[in-house]
Structure formats: structure tokens, C-alpha cells
Amino acid sequence: MTDELSTDLPAFDLLDLEPVDGATTYRMPASTRLCTPFGFLYGGSGIAASAEASERATGRPLQWITTQFLGSPSPGDVIDLHVNVAVTGRASSQTQVSGTVDGALMFTSLSAHNVRPAGDETAFSTMPDVPAPLDCPDFAEPFHVDPPDSFFSTLERRVAAGTIRFDTPLGDGDVQPGLIAMWCRLVDSDIGSAATQAYVADLGPLAVCARLGRPLGGTSLDNTLRIVDPTPTDWVLLELDADGLHRSVGHSTVKIWSQDGRPLGIAQQSAILRTSHHQPPANA
Amino acid sequence: MTDELSTDLPAFDLLDLEPVDGATTYRMPASTRLCTPFGFLYGGSGIAASAEASERATGRPLQWITTQFLGSPSPGDVIDLHVNVAVTGRASSQTQVSGTVDGALMFTSLSAHNVRPAGDETAFSTMPDVPAPLDCPDFAEPFHVDPPDSFFSTLERRVAAGTIRFDTPLGDGDVQPGLIAMWCRLVDSDIGSAATQAYVADLGPLAVCARLGRPLGGTSLDNTLRIVDPTPTDWVLLELDADGLHRSVGHSTVKIWSQDGRPLGIAQQSAILRTSHHQPPANA
């Protein structure tokens, strides 16, 4: 690629993505740090890997990606990522990405990239006014696990607004009002690139659980990210919205803000909400 | 399929979708009424066809769909739709759909379906308070065409709130504030099914144009729909939000409400915004 941006695309080292066959095939070990404590790949890892593989294959920064989750790689699996560059235009590229383990499809992604001039970033809204990250309490998971290593250990999370607790269920028909927001920071990386935004934004179902006041776990059907500004930041504020529930499928939106109030991106996802989900694997 | 819902899935007659090879392959003529006045398939037609083909192939109602637009079928083309049912679980199905013309890929979709018990529909928000449809003015397009037939003639549109006009551009840095909303009605169909919601929700880029106060046209990269309640209604209110702009790509959200205030679904999309888009084709 001759785009001047092609050499500036950032890598998200946590993924440890390795090219294996020219520019369109990559491999990623499902390390325990990319998995949940429950013994399967964290959805944020799958969409992040797709985003980075697609950026490397096209040489162009990602503007939008949707990842559909079909299977659950286990810790120790090796994931093969293949990028089909379906459209290469003067300024835009569009791809489909498949993630497989031993030939079985685990996730598939659609994405768009372009190299048009930037500097037109517009948010149309402003970041909520919340306390600074270090003035907010740590996020306490609604379940008790003590994993030696999982994506939990890659991601510092602090509750900035709202009640993201599950010990006092709401009554039927009650909906917790008000803002729900969380500060996040990656232990070993800034956040801004498509891959890092995708990794931290996979928390939307928490908003549906919080609004319902029920200790539900979510199995993501998809994860979708749209980029507004990829300039890196340390902490990000995730503004979490519950959009709706139907047939046990909860829809949620996550607006991603830099610590100084820049809009970085907007994520949306649908997840099956379950009460049986947050158990450690039987052999734990 | 033995699901009791499998025989109750509604058809969107406008699409004229015809099964051609068992349950997984369909064909749709790109009739002028499914196209824009500018000589290409309306994005809402592509996502609607994917949604209906996927529902028919799985026998299960759709909960979420994302369609990626890669090419532009012309009026008169015949579109072949192939559904790959990748996952069939006890309650859930997940598919990928491809739409091709003479073997060339025009759009591809990812979707999820399930037959869990409904009755849990929750919106977490309320419909904006706007005048009734017939008390709102017709939507005037920001360009002048007189097509004999196009998707415009399938869709009645009335401006319920905000300024969706393009004759008075805003100054640099100005952003039009306030609610933007539009009533829509299909001439020959109720709205509620995934296909009909997808068809009417392809108007999000208007929100970005309205906020910027510029007469831009949009080329959709994707269209994404999440279902909250498919019970049919006559008029729907589209609550339009501009989510962000970057590298000329505008992101938008459309909340879909029934006339009596039920949340039907939420749509989101990214589109390249252009000033050169809204011209009739050269041979018009």
C-alpha cells in the first residue's frame, strides 16, 4: 500500500497477532489474558483481533466494524484470522474477517476503512460530568472468582456514575434511572486505536443488567464499533445505555470518551441475558 | 422447523422475495420501487431482503442484523440471496447472508434469531412528545428529482421535529441543537417485522446532515437493526441522532417508535457523506 497512513497503524500488543501468510492471514493464541475467567475468549478480544487484522490487511484505519460471535474459543486454542478484502477503492476499503479454530468458525466480522482527510471529528454531544478516575470506586464483579489470569487483569475499571451492583434486585417494573458510566484503563496500553476501543467497549450488557437490577450475565451475539477519533488517551469514560430488551436479548450502546472529553467512538451490541452464565467452569 | 413461530413469520410483499433452491436461496428483482431515484438499490431494500431471507431460512424471528454494502445493484438487476445458517441452537440461530448480481457480491449480512418467550419488551426510555403524523409537514427532499417510481413512492415521510432542510447552511462550528424526528408510513404495509423496520430505518445519515446544516448525501457503509418489539403499527416515529463524524464518515442512530409509543427497534449506521451524491443519473 502507498497510503502514508499505512505505516502508522498502531498495534495492540496484548493480542500478539502474528502474520502467517502474506498480508491477509494472521494467527492469535487465545491466551488466558484474552479470555474470561469462565473459560472462553472474551468478546472484546475477538473484535479487537478482527479490527487489527483488517487494518493490517488493508493498510488503512478502520472506521466501522461489526463482529458476530458464533463459537467460544478456549484458553490455549490458536485462532486463525483470514481477511477477505472485498472492496479496495481510491480512499475506502471493505473487508470480511473470519476467525476459526481448527477450521471451525468462531466469529466473523464486517468492516470499513478509509484514508480521507481527518480533522473533521465531531461529537454532537458532550461527555457527562463525573468525578476523575482515581476518585471513583473500583468496579466489583457481581460474582466471586479468583482467576489466576484473565482479561480482568488487563483492564482497570472504576464506577463513575450509577449503580452497577447486583446485590439488591429491583422490583418488577422498576427501572433504575440516571447515568451509568465507568472509567477504564488498559494496564499495558493507551486506548484510541480501533482494536483498543473495541476491546474496552464490550461492556454494554452491564447497562441492561444494571437497569433491570438483576445479576444477569450476557452472551454477546455481536459487537459493533464506530470510530470518531482514534487519538490515544490513558483513561476512557464508557457512557453506558440500555436500549431495549426482547426475547431475553438485551441491546446496549457505549459511548467512549477520552479523559479530556473527546469522543473516541460509539459501540453497540446485542447479547442474550442469562442467569446461569456467571459460573466458573466445572473444572475450576 | 417445528417452532410454533415458524409459520407466523410475516412477509414484506414489496420485496417480492422468491425461494429458488430449498430454504436457503432466494431471488429478488431490483424493481425501481426498491431503488433510489439516482439509479441504484436503496440500502433499506438490501437489509430488508437479507432480514426476510434469513428469517425464512431459519424459521425464526430476527433479533439483530448488520448489512455491509459493497456494490450498487441497478434497477432491473436480479439479486440472488444465499443464507448460510452457521449456528442452529435450541432457541437461537445465527446466519450470514450474501446478496450477489451475476456472481458479484453487492452486500453481505450477519444476523441472529431466537424463539425465546417474548413479553419482556423493555425500552428504558420514552417516545418524544411530537405532533400527530397528519399535523406534521411533508418531508421535502433537499434536491429536485421527478422519478417515475422509486422507494420515495413507497414511503410517506413527515417532519415531526427539528429542521431537516438544507437551504440555510449553518456556519462553521455551529451545530443545530434539539430533537430531530420523522413520522414514516409504508404505502402498502404495516411496520413491525424486521424487514419493514430495516426498510424505514435507513434514514440516519439525514441526522448528521441536519446537525451539520449541509446538503450532503450519504453512501451507507452498513445498516444495523436491533429488534425490541415487532408488533405491527401503521405510522412509526423515527427519532434521529447524529453520533459522530470522522474522515467524512458520519455515524447515526435511529430509534423506531410505534404511533402509540411502543419501542419497536433501534438502528445504527455509518455512511460516507458526500456533496456530489444527490444528482440524478446522467441518462435521466
UniProtKB/TrEMBL annotation, chains A, B:
Source lineage? Bacteria, Bacillati, Actinomycetota, Acidimicrobiia, Acidimicrobiales
Q: What is this protein called?
A: Acyl-CoA thioesterase-like C-terminal domain-containing protein
Protein source organism: Ilumatobacter coccineus (strain NBRC 103263 / KCTC 29153 / YM16-304)
Q: Which CDD domains match?
A: Thioesterase_II (cd00556)
Q: Which InterPro entries match?
A: ACOT8-like_C, Acyl-CoA_hotdog, HotDog_dom_sf
Domain named Acyl-CoA thioesterase-like C-terminal is located at 135-272
State the SUPFAM superfamilies in the record: Thioesterase/thiol ester dehydrase-isomerase
Q: Signal sequence: where? A: none
